[in-house]
Amino acid sequence: MLGSPAPGLGIGFAAIWLGDRENAVRRILPDVTSAIPVWLTVHREIRSSARIRAVYNFLAEAIPEALA
What we know:
Elements: H1 16-21, H2 50-67
């Protein structure tokens, strides 16, 4: 579900995969793209946890590949 853009609310940006799932929205400027930075953060008290580090490392590698 999209909060906005939604029918009658004008033009907005959404991830392609998210907008494509919504029948109520449509692409009107398909050639316009935008690169939005993605930040990975972790609270300093848990950053040394092996489990947290494993997830962080996985996401640091997987996210750029998925967005490419």
